[in-house]
Amino acid sequence: RFELSGRQEDLEEAISLHREALELLPAPHPARSSSLNNIALALWTRFKKYGRHDDLDEVISFHRKALELRPAPHPERSSSLSDIATALSTRFQVSGRREDLEEAISLHREALRLRAAPHADRSASLNNIALALSTRFKQSGRHEDLEEAISLHREALVLLPTPHPDRSSSLNNIALAL
Question: Would the pTM of this model clear 0.90, i.e. be above it?
Fold first, then answer.
């Protein structure tokens, strides 16, 4: 309902209920990683809406805990890696902590390794790494990062033939990198 109405009370209640549900699922409960992910997503929503930095730190913490419960070859491991990397990239944009960007790139690479073709999320992983490398290029001026970003964007585009709904975004990513 929060996404429809924007009522902060709904989001706060959802976060509270997710916390309560998590308390009922101690490790090694098989649903604990999903519960950790759910609370992270609710906190992510609040961070995106209100910009509270402590929410972003908590998002990263909960995603890390979920990842610990999803060792290889867990089917959701690549998603957990990608979620942490995305949150770290965002924290880098907010705080400028270079180690967050470096870790994000590393985690995006690990997620990509788990998303071999024809994995449905491979193009997203390719674009995520490319965007993080483009960010690092803007910070450091390392041309290798820019060249790799362009190459990865092109590889992602190949996986998104017309009329794929993400093709235009992929084309824009390449154009912006060029």
Answer: yes
